[in-house]
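2024-03-11 09:14:02 INFO worker-7 job=invfold-0412 stage=load source=structure_tokens
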């Protein structure tokens, strides 16, 4: 992404259901949803007991496309079904809103709805009432819904994406003001660059919290899952380092231009838990009810702890290919908008090789995920 450019038109996952699509390469995100399910269950059960809505209104923010989107909806329906049975009540109507940026592939989700409804009816029968699923495109760093109209928000693996590159990178004439040392924030980046990313994350998360607090009813809740970094360290995800190294190799071979690479920036920030807590406290709209940290490998502990279907341990090349497909599904639209389609295959082939080499050198590549449960302040 070019420095100063908004993410709204280019930050989306690979569309469709093909081999390079997000729908086909989102196992990693699915594992995070599974890990967060106990907190989702606790939060949704408490919300339902306290409010008992006739129509439960829920939004999945940054939903993207593919099976994970409807997995969250299915989990919430099951939680409310159990809670209603315990209270000897009939199920409420359900109104789900799927939110992501304007270029996201909502059509793939919509095409899967007939089968979703059929499966839901097969499991719940006449017990399930009306269930409405709609799209609400737009940035979640601004208002999306009417005041006091929503009961619950879910957001997983989205809030580390910034609304734009840090404002400090832009001078009065629209050029680059702050010196950078790569396509993304690194542990060795200048202190000024690290502070610029943190300030942008603070601005964005506060805007997100303020908007959601205005949209939630009293007692409304949220469950948010962040990709983070260890507390009190500057360690950053190595995926972006490796992608930057692959681009630098291509620059040295004259496959891309120096100015094109220099102007590229990944609008992403992995916060520490202390930073997340501090922002929530400063913004003041929510009570931080529960926080959990879970560790995930780059591969999302794929296929039962790196074992293939035949029970054999996956080697570094197979794991590297898996990770490269996932990163491509997430970043290709962003990279393609800046560098063009022609280098994509070569770029991710090089990236795969660098991942495989790093796995041979380090073997274990993990980072923390923060699952946060919030209740709207009275």
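2024-03-11 09:14:09 INFO worker-7 stage=emit residues=378
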């Amino acid at each position: 992404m070019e420095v100063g450019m908004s993410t709204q038109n280019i930050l989306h996952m690979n569309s469709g259901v093909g081999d390079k699509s997000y729908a086909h390469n989102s196992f990693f995100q699915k594992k995070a949803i599974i890990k967060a399910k106990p907190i989702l269950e606790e939060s949704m059960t408490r919300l339902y007991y306290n409010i008992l809505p006739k129509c439960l209104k829920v939004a999945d923010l940054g939903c993207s496309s593919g099976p994970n989107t409807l997995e969250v909806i299915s989990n919430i329906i099951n939680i409310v079904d159990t809670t209603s049975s315990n209270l000897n009540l009939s199920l409420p109507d359900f109104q789900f809103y799927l939110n992501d940026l304007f270029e996201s592939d909502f059509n793939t989700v919509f095409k899967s709805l007939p089968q979703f409804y059929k499966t839901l009816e097969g499991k719940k029968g006449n017990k399930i009432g009306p269930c409405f699923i709609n799209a609400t495109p737009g940035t979640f760093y601004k208002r999306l819904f009417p005041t006091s109209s929503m009961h619950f928000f879910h957001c997983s693996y989205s809030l580390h994406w910034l609304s734009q590159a840090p404002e400090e990178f832009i001078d009065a004439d629209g050029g680059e003001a702050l010196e950078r040392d790569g396509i993304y924030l690194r542990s060795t980046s200048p202190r000024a660059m690290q502070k610029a990313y943190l300030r942008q994350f603070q601005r964005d998360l506060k805007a997100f919290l303020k908007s959601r607090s205005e949209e939630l009813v009293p007692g409304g809740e949220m469950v948010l899952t962040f990709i983070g970094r260890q507390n009190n360290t500057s360690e950053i995800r190595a995926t972006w380092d490796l992608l930057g190294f692959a681009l630098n190799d291509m620059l040295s071979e004259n496959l891309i231009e120096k100015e094109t690479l220099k102007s590229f920036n990944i609008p992403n920030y992995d916060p520490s838990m202390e930073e997340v807590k501090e922002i929530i406290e400063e913004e003041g709209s929510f009570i931080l009810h529960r926080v959990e940290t879970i560790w995930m490998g780059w591969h999302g502990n794929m296929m039962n702890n790196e074992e293939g279907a035949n029970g054999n341990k996956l080697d570094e090349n197979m794991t590297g290919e898996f990770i490269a497909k996932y990163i491509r599904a997430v970043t290709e639209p962003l990279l393609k908008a800046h560098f063009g389609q022609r280098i994509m295959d070569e770029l991710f082939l090089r990236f795969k090789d660098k991942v495989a080499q790093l796995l041979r050198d380090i073997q274990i590549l993990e980072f923390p995920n923060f699952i946060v449960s919030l209740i709207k302040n009275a």
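2024-03-11 09:14:09 INFO worker-7 stage=report msg="The first strand starts at residue 55 and ends at 61."
2024-03-11 09:14:10 INFO worker-7 job finished
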